[in-house]
Amino acid sequence: MKDVYILAIESSCDETAASVVKNGREVLSNVISSQIPIHQKFGGVVPEVASRKHVENIASVVEMALSEAGVKKEDLTLVAVTHGPGLVGALLVGLQFAKGYAFSLGIPLLGVNHIEGHIAANYIQYKNLTPPFVSLVVSGGHTFVVHVEDYDKFTVMGETRDDAAGEAFDKVARALGLGYPGGPKIDAAAKKGDPYAITFPKARFHEDTLDFSFSGLKSAVLNYLNSERQKGNDIHVENVAASFQRAVVSVLVENAMKTIETKHLDKIAVAGGVASNSSLREELKKRGEEKGVEILFPEMILCTDNAAMIGSAAYFQYIKGKRSDNSLNAVPGLSL
Ligand code: KG4
Ligand code: ZN
């Protein structure tokens, strides 16, 4: 088969990203223009600001991705773009740009599910990885344990009933005055704290499901902080961070391992921004070694939002004949 060069575009949240991916697993360029410093002063992503910044940046990010890859526009096979889930205004910027680009070059367009993209980051990292496996998808907007039966066949085994794991990290970090995005700040603070200092409830929905619930845990942390402050006690930020993180990580590990047992599989591929969490990496690896389960993590740059993962997910659909047409729309609540 001829080599497949995919230009992938990602603009679902606060990163404007473009990448050229060859044959689904080889990243020729991976350009990410982060808006984090802009949103930091608001303590979170402001959707209207995100859309405007995408408009400003997208053309140059795409040009950079092509020039870094050393690939001419005429050599592209396909334009892939995230069409959901995400912020509607942000998604529309990438989508409209991708449509125009594909049309002007006379090549096909393919809409990609952002969550499938996060999972596909593992195909880039692990060149021999093939389904089936279990994926733990933990990002700012999503928390899923998924049975990946094939490149395009997913069964959600458990999901959050309220906040996403990353969202809980961000909200607790804000309450601790650590700033945005909270995940990396809590991760760093927790390294200096005692994870057993405070007992917070587990982030579980129910004993007998694989679903998660993070809002109860988040409220428990906020209540703890309020009550300590009312008593005039100093807050030991590192201990709170470490104890909160332990509660999140333990349920993520537990549900992923339970899914492995249920499905009789031997690989867990972790995905999404929270996959960079050092405690999650350590705990899963430890449990994996005990149980003979291989634990896979993409490198950090492929965990948080990027376009290379979208290019990889698109490839496996493209070779099965999937294409989108010009009616492709943004679907903010797109599910797996
Ligand atoms: O996947 P991602 O870049 O964007 C979404 O699709 O949501 O994930 C961003 C999330 C944020 O909530 C951020 O706080 C979290 O990932 N995150 C982390 C770490 N690095 C990023 N959470 C915990 N520990 C980290 N080291
Ligand atoms: Zn994401």
TrEMBL record:
Query: What reaction gets catalysed by this protein?
Result: L-threonylcarbamoyladenylate + adenosine(37) in tRNA = N(6)-L-threonylcarbamoyladenosine(37) in tRNA + AMP + H(+)
CDD domains reported for this sequence? ASKHA_NBD_TsaD_bac
GO cellular component entries? cytoplasm
Q: Does the keyword Transcription regulation apply?
A: no
Which InterPro entries does the record cross-reference, listed alphabetically? ATPase_NBD, Gcp-like_dom, KAE1/TsaD, Peptidase_M22_CS, TsaD
List residues binding substrate: V137, V138, S139, G140, G141, D170, G183, D187, N277
Cofactor list? Fe(2+)
Q: Which UniProt keywords apply?
A: Acyltransferase, Cytoplasm, Iron, Metal-binding, Transferase, tRNA processing
Q: Name one GO biological process term.
A: tRNA threonylcarbamoyladenosine modification
TM segment ranges: none
Q: What is its main location?
A: cytoplasm
Q: What class of enzyme is it?
A: transferase
Q: Does the keyword Secreted apply?
A: no
Where in this chain does the record put each Gcp-like domain?
Answer: 26-311
- Give the enzyme's EC designation: 2.3.1.234
What does the Swiss-Prot or TrEMBL cofactor note state? Binds 1 Fe(2+) ion per subunit.
Q: Name one Pfam family in it.
A: TsaD
Where, per UniProt, does this protein localize? Answer: Cytoplasm
Q: Where does Fe cation bind?
A: H114, H118, D305
GO MF, one term, reads:
tRNA N(6)-L-threonylcarbamoyladenine synthase activity
HAMAP family documented for this protein: TsaD
Function recorded in the entry? Required for the formation of a threonylcarbamoyl group on adenosine at position 37 (t(6)A37) in tRNAs that read codons beginning with adenine. Is involved in the transfer of the threonylcarbamoyl moiety of threonylcarbamoyl-AMP (TC-AMP) to the N6 group of A37, together with TsaE and TsaB. TsaD likely plays a direct catalytic role in this reaction.
User: What family, per the record?
Assistant: Belongs to the KAE1 / TsaD family.
Name of the protein described by the UniProt record? tRNA N6-adenosine threonylcarbamoyltransferase
Q: Which gene encodes it?
A: tsaD
